[in-house]
Fold these 2 entries.
Entry 1:
Amino acid sequence: MIVAFTDLDDTLFQTRRKLPAGAAGLTPATVDRDGQPHSFCTPAQSALLAHFAASGVTVVPVTGRDPAAMARVTLPFTSWRVLDHGLTVLRPDGTADPGWREQVLAHLAELAEALAGCTEHVAALAAEHGCRLTRHRAHGAHFMTVLKHPQADAARLEALQLAWEALLEERAWAGLHIIANANNVSVLPRHLGKAEAVRYLREQHFPDAALTLALGDSLSDVPFMNACDLALTPPAGQLLRTVTAARLPQR
Ligand SMILES: [Mg+2]
């Protein structure tokens, strides 16, 4: 058995804005809240999915999407699914895996005070910078706070990121960390995420997999990519852009 654990947004599909003008042969992959096509697979992304399907590869999405956002993905995923940045593992029948839920809720109970502290600490500053603050829940428990700026203003998002980084250090809240991308900054558990969910699935449900592939575009995907046998990443994604810019000495 071969299992492909794969991020979704900007790995298997992306919005039209991120595609070259006049890109052809696109296949709709998600819809927006009004049911209109929103993200698309390129011919190469469609070919990869078709290849996986034809060769019997089990494809397991590993995404930050919550269940509502996952429901707007129109690609046919039929196996296990990892949602909410790893906090939710769905079985093939669509119900939450109870063993994983139990572990997650126990871990979140330990982090509840720090997460609430981070959220309150930055609320006024977020409003000042015109950023929207959202508390995300999994299994009914707060696990992540996200700040978004409507125009994705990098300077304002960075100011909030720095405020959070300073607070985490000052309070020694090592169980949380910050992830940032183009239009948002989030605080979420450091030791419970996509990587731990992928390890859990490998151990509990795919112990006999001959090969596990990991597909992702972002730095936040790296831990789960490191939990698989082989990693694939798109050019010009956050991950390869960072590696390209690193100019590390060759040893
Ligand atoms: Mg992605």
Entry 2:
Amino acid sequence: MEVSLYKNIDDKIMCTACLRYCRLSDGQTGYCGVRTNVNGHLNLSVYNMPYSFNIDPIEKKPVLHMYPGADILSFGTTGCNFGCLYCQNYDMSQRRKADGVYYTPEDVVNLAMEYNTDGIAYTYNEPTIFMEYARDIGLIARRHGLINIFVTNGYETDESMKMASEFLDAMTVDFKGNGNKYFYNKYISVPSAEGIFNTIKNAVNYGIHTEITDLIIPDIGDSLDDARKMLEKIMNIAGPYIPVSFLRYHPDYKLNIPETPLNTLIAHHDLAVSMGFKYVYLGNVHEVNYENTYCPVCHSLLISRRGFYSRVTGLDSNGRCKNCGYITGIKLLRNKKLIKG
Ligand code: SF4
């Protein structure tokens, strides 16, 4: 399928979907393996071609401050613009060619409705590489009252984010190794994490609900100095109320380092709290005190979580703390139906 996020430059085309800005000669495919110059036009080989579907709780994305308890149809395609050596979905992401089953945008939305889900998550691999397919699905999904969520590495261009703003309700932006440049070079094959901050700025400006995750990898991606620098930039862009989750890494694919110790994660949690972040979580661990949401004013329990399951206990139907009246802005499901706006 011919797609639109590209520019013609001399006898090449430049893909503008992600910050790699691959310049492609006729017949050449970009780093992600799914966008190809065909006679001066850009072809997206995974358009209509998802590789994997699942129905997940929204907490698994993780999106913690929007519609807790919502059921989300999650899907991804093959290909990726990152080369993470520890990728848990490497069978999809590192398969640098189209593969999967034929699903038009209407088919994907119909599947989401057939299973009575509340929305669609574009996840498992990097959705930016199939932005035009996601947009076409997302616009139909919106017309049917479904929400759209990106789980992204944040390597979007301004052009991509403009397209995302047409249909996206929420983004989880995933840092790795505290944004350390050397880590991004060596373990992800990406020059730097700097562009990710611009993506967060774009998301905030477009009014897309944004949450941050950061995968902490022992020894090679767990520097608290790096975490402080990363968090300072996030604070300057998005303020202290943006949810931040530090995720435990597990060995996979080509990286055999043991999983992240709990103490390392707690040190990151405590740093973020000391810097003024109001909603800080740990992920991929089952430690209740680090999964729950507490009121930033009176510290009452608002949402209790265990793994991917949540129970709203301390919020009224408008997302206000029942104890002190603080307006959290957290949107809630009512009678298992989305109430938007
Ligand atoms: S989306 Fe793919 S082709 Fe486009 S710039 Fe990124 S890696 Fe290159």
